Structures are given as structure tokens and as C-alpha cells.
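Hey,

The postdoc asked me to send both predictions to you directly instead of through the lab channel. I've kept everything plain text so nothing gets mangled by the mail client. Protein one:
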Amino acid sequence: MTERNALFVRIPIEAAERLRHAAFELNTSKQDLVAGLVTHYVDPSDLASLRRITVETADDSLTVGHAELHPDPPAEVLTLAGVAALLQVTADDVEALAEAGELPGRKVGGEWRFAREAVLRWLAG
């Protein structure tokens, strides 16, 4: 069990009732709920699994809620900058590879476009 430290606070009756209700609805203890709400640090690698968001209000009321984070799927068609970010190189390097015919892509309206899947296959090959 996690080591705990006593915390005594006075909150408005309505806020205490909302806390009790939130703990019941989330099937957790009020201690765990408050501990989760006051956590300030979220590891960037954990953002995809983030499930609880706290909203601070202008007054002293307690706001409890939840949200789910659904990252956008990666783009299927990439620009020079998108391929450069994917490959972790400069856009100039990507353009040189494409111009030399080494990297699969084609110009559309004078701008390079690349299929993400083709770039990944090229990288794996």
C-alpha cells in the first residue's frame, strides 16, 4: 500500500457532496480521487493513456470530470516536412533523396507528396 500523509481540509458542503458522489461513481476512495486530482506532473509518454482531466475554476469550487484522449491517426500522405520528421532528417535531405529517385514519392502541384506506407517500406528495405 502507498504511504499516506494526513490532510485535513474544509470545503463547502456542496463540494464535499460532489466529492463523495464522484468517488462513488468512479468506484474509488475520496483519498485516491483527491490524490489523483492534485498530481501536477504527467509524463509525456503517458499522454496517450491519460484518462482523467482536472479543470480549475475561478472560485473555490471543486470540478471533477473525465475525458479520453484519442490521438489522431498518422497521415497517410506526407509532405517533405512530414517525411523529414518521420525520418528525423532535414527536409533538404528528403528532397535530395526524392529528386534522386531513391525515396518513393511524386510531385503534386509542384510539391512533393509521399505515401507513409511506402516511406516506411523504403526505410525497412
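Protein two:
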Amino acid sequence: MKFLFVVVGAGVGAPSRFLLDQTLRPILRYPIGITLINVVGSFILGLSIGSSNNVGALVGIGFAGAFTTWSTFILDVYLAYELKKYKSAAANLILSLALGISAAWIGIHLVQ
């Protein structure tokens, strides 16, 4: 049964990420869509920590797992580096990690 909750959550999370990123990417020069997605996903994962197995599977593993994207984040950093946009690459890396960790920490502490 837990598997089905993961599948349903992922079925909503991945398309949500795609739509949000596709909406924001043409408007902004900086890959803010992926940063925003990963920060929000980290917050949602933090909120789901300690919830029931089914809620954790649906929201934490399924939705947040499919909504966030490590691969696109790393690709954005790599492409900025390759284009010699070192400040942009460093800012993306530092900002994403700092905000993501902070968002997860806030989410965890809100439910405690």
C-alpha cells in the first residue's frame, strides 16, 4: 500500500516541477525555478518528517522526491561554470544549499 502512496505523490510532484520550471525559466536569467522548487521541496520534506507512514510516503517520498531535482540543479551549476559564469554558478550552489537546508530545518521544527 505504501508503494501506491509514493506513486501518487510522484505523479503529482514531477509534473508540478516541470510546469513551474517551464513557466519561470524563460522569464528569468537565473535558474530561480529550480532553486525555488528545491527549497519548497526541502520545506515540504521537513514538514513530512515524523508523519504517519502513508502521509510520509505520499508527501515526503513521493511528492517531494519527484518535485525536487538534484540533476537539474547540478546541470544548471555545471552549465554556468562551462559558460564561465563563475559568480552565477557559485551563487546558485551556495544559495540553493543554504536555503534548502534552512527550509528543511524550519519544516522539521514547525511540526515538533
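Summary for protein two, as requested: The helical segments are 2-24, 32-48, 53-67, 70-82, 86-111.

Thanks,
C.
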